[in-house]
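Hi Y.,

Following your request, here is the sequence exactly as I used it, all 461 residues.
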Amino acid sequence: MKKIRIGSGAGYAGDRIEPAMELIQKGNLDYIIFECLAERTIALAQQEKMKNPDMGYNHLLKYRMDKVLSLCVENNVTLITNMGAANPLAAAKIVKNIAEEKGIHDLKIAAVIGDDVYPNIEKYLECLIIETGVPLKDVNSSIISANAYIGISGIVTALKEGADIVITGRVSDPSLVVAPLQHEFGWQDTDYELLGKGTAAGHLLECAAQVTGGYFADPGYKDVPDLWNVGYPIAEVQGNGDFFLTKLEDSGGMVTAATVKEQVVYEIHDPTRYLTPDVIADFSQIEVIEKVTNQVHITGVSGKEKSGLYKTSIGYVDGYIVEAEISYGGSGCLERSRLAEEVVRHRLIQANIEIQEMRIDHIGSNSLYGSSISEPLYDRERLSEVRLRVAARTADKEAADVIGQEVEALYTNGPAGGGGVRVNVQEVVSIASILIPSEEITIEVTYEEVGKIETQASHSL
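Below is the corresponding structure, written out as tokens. Let me know if you'd prefer a different format.
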């Protein structure tokens, strides 16, 4: 029976590259995916693209491609990634340039576009925001991006047309895996059970080391071997959609029923209705069976017809956040940190600035659980260091700057022994979600080719 091996090369925008390189070299892979987009990530990328139309792709694109492009060619591994972020077209050109610099020939690079619906944002202003229930028009003046979670169609087209590298923007995370499975096994768009199973494989691969022990480890309770050398996962999938999850033998971490189960429930609101652009997956009857060390078989997943709606992430500017910190050490450090808090609160009242939200923590004493839980656990006399953290959100940068300045002023205008001040002010990009009809999205696939006479072509879906 034909089997397809797909490896995970990244689980977030800034993930490590070394485990991915190992997978390409030793994993006997057919495909590797790099999942590098979160909700805010693409909004920030759109901001960057507004400032420079040649930017807006993942900031590690060049670094990663420099490391893995030759390895993928040498090992005949097709690479699929959403590192295109807000600018897949520019990303494809970057990859072409890297390939030419490395002397790589006969490489076809596809850019999948169509997820960016910002040019049509006026059509959707009456849509209700999922998180708040208010119309999108309530944040219209500050909207900077709008990207729909598109599905597998563009990637499948690119693979059918011989793409070696497929670069997308905002594609549903599991679709990076479902697409090559549909292409290889000839699944139809109406094979909902198969698409549901493929979605499970994609869901387990999408966060990379989370399923191989990273973010799972808890010493003494959930021990993970050689976490420093944690490897990334591999899914070996059969044509009937059943698959097992594994990793390289000589990598750290582990693949167990427990690590898989934790990832199965990650970001799943309703296990009977996991909504994606390709299918509504049903994980409620999933079976996770650990047959041998570092090999877990997954069966029992099914699926239903997709909803016909695309979740769309709207990025909008939402004021400024300031974080300012100062440390106090030695005897009485908590009392001095509390006095510093009192000083800052009074001075901010005097400054008469508008603060939308503010939180003050004494890191080392109450920053995680609050005073009611944390304080009984600590002997104040034995606390040797505390860090005061003042965080606030404001509508304008000037007010945020004032808060940072008042914390910095504690150096000489506050309790004794304060040091190590850090102040950071940044613009806030928030995310709102709406649903739009899938038929309003037009997907296009554009190509860059290396070592060919004709260097560009396009195909609309």
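The first strand starts at residue 3 and ends at 10.

Thanks again,
Q.
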